[in-house]
Every structure is written in structure tokens, then in C-alpha cells.
Design goal:
By secondary structure, this protein is mostly helical. The chain has a single domain, classed as ABC transporter involved in vitamin B12 uptake, BtuC, CATH 1.10.3470. 73% of the residues lie in helices and 1% in strands. It has a two-stranded antiparallel ribbon. α11 runs parallel beside α13. The longest helix is centred in the N-terminal third of the chain and has 36 residues. It starts with a helix and ends in a 14-residue tail after the last helix.
Length: 343
Amino acid sequence: MTAETTQRRLGSVRFGRSKGLLTMAISTVVLVLLGFLLAPSSVSQGAILGMLPFASVLAIIGLGQMLVVQQGGIDLSVPGAVSLAVVLATHIPNENDGLLLPAVLAVYAWAIGAGLLNGLLVGRLGLNPIIATLGTNALLFGAVLGISGGIPRTTTRLLSTIAGGRTVGIPNAVLFALGFLALVMLLVKKTVAGRRFEAVGASPAAARATGLRYRTHRGAAYVWSQLLFATAGILLAGITNQPTAFQGNSYLLTSVAVVVLGGTSLLGGRGFPAATVVAALFLSQLDQFVLALGVPFAVRTLVQAAALAIGVAIYTVDWAAVRRRFTASSPTVPPPSSTPAVT
């Protein structure tokens, strides 16, 4: 890694630390104000309380995706992981509260297996993470169809109370999201292993030179991400009374979008958990705002894609270099001559 590349990487880290969380917080406030002006139904009490549980699910999924992106990878098995968690959490109990715990254990067992598979393919064998995780996603959807046959089942009353209920007026899903945010921040930011994890993502070559087990860290990121995806799927199964077998399909693009909008570089390095969670809130409220305007679903998807593109442009484009290039290509007008004209 050259000195210029290192300086650029450090500069992007400083920018993300100082601007990422602030940018998303301001954007969310502006979006809420626009909601009051243009679509009041999107910011009503009922709409907000209905949006927050799904924003919490997206926040937990975003935290899992962030851990993988920090290592310069990406996990495209999100739809299959979330859908399988939903199917297991509803089909194994089959409305029997007594079977909910075995169902949850089965969800996490599948998550660990999928994470180990991704970790082996990417971290050990060095396969392209896009190809590897897409293959895992296909396997997970095969399990979804094999278990459910594509037929939804009703959530148990206990899971509905835990995931879809409220505590002192706050949706329980929000409390789960805040708890996992605190856990991720504690492990990644305040422990020696977490700092090594970030160092491996910032520069695998330097980590290898210093003796860090960079392959282990990269592989472990996929295990942790799958555990977070599974948790989000269990919550989603409790929030939705009769979830479909393909409930996770809508979280592929958004899981990457919240990570990018939160300021985490797609090239790896330092992650920003708090900014990722705020980005999940922003994106969920944006979807609510667009929905309240009455636009088609296709337009909502385009809006999410545009938010992702804007996030990539803000945090990855070297705007100083663009400005220098634009300035260099602009025609310069010579100053007026001070020599008097000859008459």
C-alpha cells in the first residue's frame, strides 16, 4: 500500500467518523419535516409505531452486513438467511409456544452452518464473496422450499408478544436493535479482538505482515453476520402475523444501502454501527414517505437504489481529485494586458 493510498484511506476514515452519523441524523430530521409538509400520514403516531419494528429488523441486518463489508467482502445470502429463519420460527412450532425454543435453536444452528460455509469459501479458499454467498443463498432457499413448500404459517402467540409487543410504549424490536447495537459497538470498538478485526479489514497485507490471522477474522465475519441475520428473521416472524416463505427478499439491496449510507467503505476498514442503525431508520422512513405519496412499488425500489448510489458517491468518490481534474480541464482566461494600445 503506497503512502498516497494510505493517506486517502485515513482521510476517508476521518470523514466517516465526523460526517457519517451526523449526515444520516440530519437527513432523517429533514425527511421527517418533509413528511409533515407533503405526506402527514407518514409521520403520524400509528405510522411511526408501525415503521419502527421493521426499521429495527433492517438495523440488525445492516449490522451483520457491516461486519462483512468491513473485511472488504459482501454477503448476498441475506434473503435466504432471513427467509429460512422466518420459516423455521413459524413451521417448527406450528403455533405451539412450547416448541418455540427448539425452533430458535434450529435457526441459530442453520445460521452457524451457513456462516461457516461462507467463511470457508471466502476466508479460507479465497473465492469471490459475491459468487460464494450467492451460492449459499441458493442453498438456503432450497431449505426454505423443502421445509415450507412455499406455504406460510401463523406466528406463535409467544413470539408475537416478544417480538411484536411493546414495553412502556416502545416496540420490543427497537429494544432488541439497540441491544445488538450496543453489543456490536462493545465487541468491535472496545476489545482487542475487535481492533484487530478492524485492522485486518483496513489492510490485510499489513495484518498478515504483523502476524494477525486475517483469514480467521474474515471467515468469522460471515458467521457473526449470519447470526445477526437469523436474529432479524426471528424478530420478523414475530412482527408479522403470517410471514411468507420469502420474507427476506426485500432486504438484499437495503442491507447494503444502510451500510454504505452509514459511512462504511465497501473497500473494508472501519465500520460505523451507530450510523448504520440511523441509516436503517432513515431508509425505513423514506420508504414510508414514498408509500404515503402513493407511488408504485417499482418507484420505491428505484428510490432505494438512488439512496445507495448517493451513499457510494458521498463516501467513496475522491471529491478533491474530481475538483482538481475539473479545474485543470477548465479553460483559463488570460489576464488583460497592461500594455497600452498603440494608436
